[in-house]
């Protein structure tokens, strides 16, 4: 099999997943977008969290041209991104009890804010406790996860529950357990994960829905422009100044 055929198969798999999410998760994406718009309209704040590779779609909506300026990344030291050294530390920290509570307690997140929690498996202590603790202090929680893991794996949290069990809205990425779309004779492990592609698309769909909902209410969505187009820096400067008390990634 040629490499180009494998590439085509991966694109087909990713497109198929995107189409499933578009068609099957539309009501939940609309609900999540409304929660985000409600928070913006009420003067509350927006946060996104993910650990390991799940942090990538979270970071993708923070300080993003064409994105909502109020989306802040809720960072857990040692788990954000793929620059953690050693890489295995991030996986270990996801299983540590109490870490999520410590992060939330020292964050600016408070009652009425929205927290988007991204976790493909939703089974580790960190995302489960993050959702539980966030709701306990009055945050609205949107979970982006693969619901299949709740039946295909066992929870690593003491409660035996998954992220999906502690959310106001659950967005199912439809990713199969193992997150690998391709297999090939002669290669022992499945390969070609699609979770980042699909989850990033879900996040952008929610943000787009929120912007449209705000506009429908006669409110100007606090969107950022690209700094690489004329006038972009000036536009963003005005947005940052107007909403500075709700933007924390700039400090």
Features:
alpha/beta, globular, 42% helix
Residue-averaged pLDDT: 93
Structural class: alpha/beta
Low-confidence stretches: none
Gyration radius, in Å: 18 Å
Largest sheet: 5 strands, parallel
End-to-end Cα distance, whole Å, is 51 Å
Tally of contiguous helical segments: 9
Query: What is the chain-wise order of helices and strands?
Result: HHEHEHHEHEHEEEHH
Gross morphology is globular
Query: Biggest sheet: strands side by side, in what order?
Result: 2-1-3-4-5
Strand content: 5-15%
| Helix content estimate | 40-55%
**DSSP, total strands:** 7
Give the oligomer, counting copies of the same chain as homo and different chains as hetero.
single chain
Protein name: UPF0309 protein NRK68_14875
Pfam families: SIS_2
Family: Belongs to the UPF0309 family.
Domain SIS: 36-221
Structural features, described:
- There is one protein chain.
- 42% of the residues lie in helices and 12% in strands.
- The chain has 9 helices and 7 strands; from the N terminus they run H-H-E-H-E-H-H-E-H-E-H-E-E-E-H-H.
- Strand 6 and strand 7 (187-191) form a beta hairpin.
- Residues 36-221 form the SIS domain.
- Pfam families: SIS_2 (PF13580).
- Belongs to the UPF0309 family.
Write the layout of secondary structure elements.
Layout (H helix, E strand, L loop, with lengths): L2 H22 L1 H16 L4 E5 L4 H5 L11 E3 L13 H7 L5 H7 L8 E5 L6 H12 L3 E6 L3 H4 L16 E4 L9 E3 L2 E5 L3 H22 L15 H11 L9
Parallel strand pairs: 1-2, 1-3, 3-4, 4-5
Antiparallel strand pairs: 6-7
Helix pairs in contact: 1-8, 2-8, 5-6
């Amino acid at each position: 099999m040629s490499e180009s055929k494998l590439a085509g198969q991966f694109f087909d798999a990713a497109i198929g997943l995107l189409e499933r999410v578009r068609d099957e998760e539309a009501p939940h994406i609309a609900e999540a977008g409304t929660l985000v718009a409600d928070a913006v309209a009420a003067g509350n704040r927006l946060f996104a969290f993910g650990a390991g590779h799940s942090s990538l779609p979270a970071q993708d909506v923070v300080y993003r041209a064409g994105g909502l300026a109020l989306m802040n990344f809720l960072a857990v030291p040692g788990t954000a991104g793929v620059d953690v050294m050693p890489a295995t530390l991030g996986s270990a920290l996801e299983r540590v009890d109490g870490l999520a509570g410590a992060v939330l307690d020292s964050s600016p997140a408070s009652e009425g804010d929205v927290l988007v929690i991204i976790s493909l498996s939703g089974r580790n202590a960190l995302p489960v406790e993050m959702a539980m603790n966030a709701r306990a202090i009055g945050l609205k929680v949107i979970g982006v996860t693969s619901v299949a893991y709740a039946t295909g794996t066992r929870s690593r949290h003491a409660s035996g529950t998954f992220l999906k069990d502690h959310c106001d809205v659950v967005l199912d990425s439809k990713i199969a357990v193992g997150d690998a779309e391709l297999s090939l004779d002669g290669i022992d492990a499945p390969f070609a994960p699609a979770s980042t592609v699909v989850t990033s698309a879900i996040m952008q769909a929610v943000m787009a829905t929120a912007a449209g909902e705000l506009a429908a209410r006669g409110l100007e969505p606090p969107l950022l422009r690209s700094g690489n187009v004329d006038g972009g820096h000036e536009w963003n400067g005005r947005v940052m100044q107007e909403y500075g008390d709700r933007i924390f990634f700039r400090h």
